[in-house]
Every structure is written in C-alpha cells, then in structure tokens.
Write a sequence for this structure.
C-alpha cells in the first residue's frame, strides 16, 4: 500500500521563539517536537499536530489560518 504523503506538512510559520513553557509561539510545538519532527513517522507527526491544535486553541494568540 503506497502513501502519497509520507509525512505531515510542518506547522512552522518561520516565527521561531520558545516561550517559558518551551512552546514555540509560531507553531505551538515544543522544542523537543521541533527537533524531532524530521525523524518522526506520520502517526507521530499527526499526534503532535493534535497537541498543536489544542495548544493553539488555549493560546491568547489564536491565528485564523
């Protein structure tokens, strides 16, 4: 079974600044998630994206993209 998208598109928006909780204010990933993104499989990346959406929803800087 072939997969046409082996990886999930990175949520990076080129605003790389970690807050006091080690979460990027641009993409809502932790420093660890950012550093491991390229070596994660699709399932792991999708799990990170779920956390990203949850963090973004709780943020005072909710973007509308």
């Amino acid at each position: 079974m072939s997969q046409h998208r082996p990886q999930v598109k990175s949520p990076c928006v080129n605003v790389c600044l970690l807050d006091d909780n080690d979460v990027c204010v641009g993409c809502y990933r932790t420093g660890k998630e950012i550093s491991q993104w390229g070596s994660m499989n699709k399932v792991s990346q999708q799990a990170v994206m779920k956390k990203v959406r949850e963090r973004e929803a709780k943020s005072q800087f909710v973007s509308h993209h």
